[in-house]
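User: Hey, my collaborator sent me this sequence without any context and asked if I could get a structure. I don't really work with proteins. Can you help?
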Amino acid sequence: MTIQETEKAYFQYLKKIMDFNEAIALAEWDMRTGAPKKGIPQRSEVVGTLADEVFKRQTSSEMKAYIDALTDRSVQNELSERTKRTVEKSKKEFERLVNVPAAEHKEYVILQSKAQSVWEEAKANADFAALQPYLKKIVMSSAGLRAIGERVPMFMMLCWIYMNPE
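Assistant: No problem. I've predicted the 3D structure and written it out in structure-token form, which is a compact way to encode the shape of the chain:
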């Protein structure tokens, strides 16, 4: 496969990830704007399932192969700046997530989704105590922290998450 073919396949692969992310955004928007309260747990599960598909693609051996091929020094002159930057972002995301167990990541996403719905209601009713159990679970969850790597001290991980929200 030529580098141009690899580049094209990589962007097609990313397109699938972006499609899943768009579906996630629509489901989250629906939960914030009009979904019945009793439907929130199910919709959160849907978000978790879609996010699990994104996670699997972002951490797959196929993604690793694209990253390796497109970061090879011998092909850098053949790649556009857009491609280089996109691959660099994919590489950062891959390295951040590759050591996180998929089931733990999915559970974390579902928890965040449910917490977002509780937050919307808590904010409207000035009932921030309703959010406390979710915040505690989110903070205690290791998925977000382990995503950065187990070798980094916790304070540094928290700073990294804060400084790199994407």
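In plain terms: DSSP finds eight helices and no strands in the chain. You can pass these tokens on to your collaborator as they are.
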